[in-house]
Amino acid sequence: MKKGIFVCVLAVLLLTLAACRQSTPEHTHTYGEWSVVTAPGCETAGEEKRTCACGEAETRPVAATGHTPGADLACSACGKAQYSEGLSYTENSDGTLTLAGLGSCTDTVLRVPATHEGKTVTAVADRAFEEQTALTGILLPDTVTTIGERAFYGCQGLVEMTLPASLTGISRTMFGSCRNLTSVTIPAGITTIQIEAFTRCDSLVNVYISDLSAWCAIEFLGFSSNPLARNGKLYVNGALVTDLVIPDGVTKILANAFYGCSSITSVTMPSGVTEIGNSAFYECEGITTVTFSDHITYIGASAFGGCGALSSVALPTSLEGIAAGAFSRCVALSSVTFREGITEIGARAFSDCKSLRSIELPEGIDEMDISLLTGCDALTAVLVPSSVRFIGVGVLSECPALTAVYYNGTAAKWSEMGFADKESFPTALVHYYSESAPTAAGSYWHYVDGVPTAW
User: Fold this and answer.
1) Which residues contact 364 (CB under 8 A, 6 or more apart)?
2) Cβ atoms within 10 Å, residue 320
3) I need a surface site. Which of 54, 79, 300, 322 has the fewest CB within 10 A?
4) Cα 162 to chain center, whole Å?
5) Buried b vs exposed e over 41-74: b needs ≥16 C-beta within 10 Å?
6) What are the residue ranges of helices labelled H in 164-274?
7) Which long-range contacts (CB under 8 A, 24 or more apart) does 166-169 make?
8) 122 and 96 in contact (C-beta within 8 Å)?
9) Using CA atoms, how far apart are residues 102 and 108, in angstroms rounded to an integer?
10) Contact yes or no for 32/50 (Cβ under 8 A)
11) What gap in Å lies between CA 119 and CA 326, rounded to an integer?
């Protein structure tokens, strides 16, 4: 009896299993989730498997993942170097190579090798990738020491660029009209940036450097050579520069060095700085204070022109000359303190300083240059030192609030003053210095608590 029951049960189980293994309308495999048997690699395929409740299993191949390029041209997954293929090269006379252009390469991110067919890549040709709007990135090896003019001109898809550490100069219009370029990393070895290198780079706002001393020494050949020129922000070793402290060892801040930089709010110079170049801080609209070196001798043309937040300036005794437009359009500037020693103040040096109410020019200058204080709307009084022998055109034009010109000399000496255009000068407002109460006719002044005051 028991044997018969066992045979029946066994028969039922065998029939069920056979039915599951057959493709019949009454049964469909119920598979679980796919599981990894062999993980795919960058260049090798992998395999996955899933199993039915009945024990039946199936597998499928998994395609190779492909390489994931990192910033250093190596795959971030396996470390294998990845380079663009099909690029065009020309051989130089010394056996090195110049990257000439795209050739047959279709990559949108170019990864240029340090060597090609055993020869070192040292240069990028003029116009190599001009107007290649599909390019979104270009990674160059540190063997590249020269990049030609207009090499990346009009590459509208280019968003950021890191220049190779071996580069020493940036050519004319190299990045001209790269209108979507937002950031650039400049290596410490750069010594010269040619005119219009970054012209019409309208979106360029972030500039990354590693050596501030080297940056101060770059020869910028025109304002459009500086990537900061369009209200750019400067980063040193990744940190945004707000309180700019010029490093010890810097003796000159060259022309256009910080032209248009919007991130700087204050400037402090060590005692070694002796000269500030033309337009060095032009239109740095966030600067509110400047602490000058006590050995500075010269401030160049338009050095602080258009620094709209700069409110006061105290110039050191070491200073000898202030060039044309040095503080022009500093609309918040309300106080200027001179020390003895200055012998030259250039044309328009303080023009359009809308908040300046009074100014005492220093003894030692022999000329009030063209339009020196023109457009100073709030200016009520100016002290002219007795050393001045000549007054240029428009020195005090467009100063509607002006009520007094205090001349630190006698009426007789004033009569010897030379004028480029005497009729335009407000001679009726001139007061002559008198230490004691005057008895002669005319307008006179003296100091009261250190302030020029009319008798």
Assistant:
1) 340, 341, 342, 343, 385, 387
2) 14
3) 79
4) 14
5) eeeeebebeebeeeeeeeeeebeebebebeeebb
6) 212-216
7) 166/142, 168/192, 169/193, 169/194
8) yes
9) 10
10) yes
11) 51
Look-up: residue for tokens 């940190």? 239
Q: Which two tokens stand for residue 447?
A: 């100091």
What are the structure tokens assigned to 350, written together?
């303080």
Token readout for 265 is 């709010």
| CA 301 to chain CA mean position, Å | 20
Q: Please, are residues 35 and 48 in contact by the beta-carbon 8 Å criterion?
A: yes
CB neighbours of 15 closer than 8 A, spacing ≥ 6? none
The span from the CA of 344 to the CA of 176, in Å, is 38
3-state SS record for 185-196: ECCCCCCEECCC
Spatial separation of the C-alpha atoms in residues 57 and 331, rounded to whole Å: 80
**Which of helix, strand or coil describes residue 289?**
strand
Dist. CA 221–CA 19, nearest whole Å: 86
Calpha distance 325→136 (Å, rounded): 41
Q: What is the pTM of this model?
A: 0.82
387/199 Cα distance (integer angstroms): 45
DSSP 87-124: -EEEE-TTS-EEEEE-TT---SEEE--SEETTEEEEEE
Joined together, the tokens standing for residue 118 give 């055993």
Structure-derived torsion over alpha carbons of residues 109, 114, 117, 119, reported in degrees to the nearest 10: 140
Question: What is the full per-residue pLDDT of the chain (455 aa) written as tens digits?
Answer: 555 555 555 555 555 555 555 545 567 888 899 999 999 988 889 999 999 988 889 999 999 988 776 655 667 787 776 799 999 999 999 999 999 999 999 999 999 999 999 999 999 999 999 999 999 999 999 999 999 999 999 999 999 999 999 999 999 999 999 999 999 999 999 999 999 999 999 999 999 999 999 999 999 998 889 999 999 999 999 999 999 999 999 999 999 999 999 999 999 999 999 999 999 999 999 999 999 999 999 999 999 999 999 999 999 999 999 999 999 999 999 999 998 889 999 999 999 999 999 999 999 999 999 999 999 999 999 999 999 999 999 999 999 999 999 999 999 999 999 999 998 899 999 999 999 988 888 899 999 999 999 99
Residue pair 402/396 in contact (Cβ under 8 Å)? The answer is yes
